[in-house]
Specification:
mainly alpha, Growth Hormone, Chain: A, 0% strand, globular
Length: 423
């Protein structure tokens, strides 16, 4: 039954669904918002080698990455709770503008203290992204079409990561590491202003709404939502713990992969930035195929596919750790693509579609924020633990840690994957 406007004299007027053009605009705006968040997230990893060559301590950069991750984890909980209460528009605008300004500051004043303060605070600003963009998508896309839309939308953080790395690599080669911070800071600030001007929190703010089926309406009426309710949900907590292991691996590769490819594998100065994109390229393929298989064979509980993907990721890491130093560029791209293929299937389900299913329209930001907040504890370890392992035991030990954390992720997602239905 199609929803139509009723007379203002009726007791319960029904607003029409938002037009497709308006839905598309909100989806694309949120897509490019999270896409550009990566331009002030991946820049430091590309610049690390050059910073070390210019006298910055590798250990100091490691501690800065960990401090950033602490603020990012705290910010996930805060922005998730606030996003459900006040809406995502202001959070995204403010978060992007402040992230851009903190990045620009180090380009203008390239001192260790500015890097430490700016990049640490950037963790809070970056944390506004994921919970609030997921909240926006859940509000503007109907339940019936969310799976297909998310299959496209989730590519924003993979393609954004690739574009940010490639762009930073270009700036590094042509101009230098200072220009990475200067240019990216300006770009993200401008995109943040655009979000503030054109985003709309929810269809109801423009007189639209999505019609729910009788069964869905009854289920929503009986369900309790809110940040504290999500915090007590065992499935949310298990997925958060699983994401803990995933984020350790993912952010270690984010922060240190270009450095590893340059210093250990022996690639030239600009090649590591481009070769490291093999990780995200494999992720894009995994995301598209994973979305199809999730809908086709795991519709009742996509976490089962996430569990299988985690096993595949562990196997890929096990093979790559022996082969990477003996491979040429094409071989390293292939090995990293295999890791990314499996990792991003699990990542997109655990932090994206499964979190949305558990949170519903009312508590998507809280659910996503909690899962990402717990997961970000693994990101904290990714700042300094790999440095200590590499310095004490060699880079092979870093890949062994990926396997250990992968096993933790498998064990954590197992109780959720065993459920017949996720919701």
């Amino acid at each position: 039954m199609q929803a139509t406007r009723t007379s203002p004299h009726t007791e319960s007027p029904v607003a029409p669904p938002p037009p497709l053009s308006l839905q598309t605009r909100m989806v694309l705006l949120s897509y490019f918002a999270y896409f550009f968040y990566y331009f002030t997230r991946k820049h430091l990893s590309v610049a690390t080698g050059s910073l070390v060559n210019d006298g910055f301590s590798l250990e100091t950069i490691g501690y800065v990455n960990s401090a950033y991750a602490v603020c990012y984890a705290i910010g996930q909980f805060l922005s998730g709770a606030l996003g459900d209460r006040s809406g995502p528009r202001i959070a995204l605008c403010a978060g992007m503008c402040l992230s851009g300004i903190s990045t620009l500051a180090f380009g203008l004043f390239p001192f260790v203290a500015v890097l430490a303060i700016g990049f640490t605070a950037n963790g809070l600003f970056q944390a506004t992204g994921w919970p609030n963009t997921c909240k926006l998508i859940t509000s503007w896309v109907s339940d019936a079409h969310r799976g297909r839309v998310m299959g496209f939308w989730l590519s924003c953080y993979i393609i954004g990561s690739m574009a940010a790395t490639a762009f930073a690599g270009y700036l590094l080669k042509e101009y230098g590491w200072k220009e990475i911070f200067l240019v990216n800071g300006v770009v993200v600030t401008v995109i943040g202003i655009i979000q503030g001007l054109f985003l709309i929190n929810r269809p109801e703010d423009r007189g639209y709404t999505f019609e729910k089926s009788v069964a869905a309406a009854e289920a929503a009426a009986e369900e309790k939502y809110g940040f504290l309710v999500m915090l007590k949900n065992p499935s949310v907590l298990f997925l958060g713990l699983s994401y803990f292991g995933l984020k350790y691996t993912r952010y270690t590769l984010f922060a240190w992969l270009p450095f590893y490819l340059e210093k250990v594998v022996g690639l030239t100065k600009d090649a590591p930035a481009y070769v490291s994109n093999g990780f995200e390229a494999g992720g894009i393929v995994g995301l598209m195929l994973g979305g199809y298989f999730a809908d086709r064979f795991f519709a009742s509980n996509r976490c089962r596919l996430a569990l299988l993907a985690l096993v595949g990721m562990i196997a890929s890491v096990y093979v790559y750790r022996f082969a990477s130093t003996g491979l040429e560029i094409a071989g390293n791209v292939t090995g990293l693509a295999a890791i990314g293929f499996f990792l991003y299937i699990a990542d997109s389900i655990i932090s994206g579609t499964a979190a949305q299913d558990l949170g519903g329209t009312a508590s998507t930001a809280s659910s996503c924020g909690i899962i990402n907040g717990i997961g970000s504890l693994g990101q904290i370890l990714a700042g300094i633990v790999p440095v200590k392992l590499a310095q004490g035991y060699g880079w092979n030990s870093v890949f062994i840690s990926f396997i250990v954390f992968g096993v933790i992720s498998c064990l954590a997602v197992l109780p959720v994957a065993r459920r017949k239905r996720l919701i």
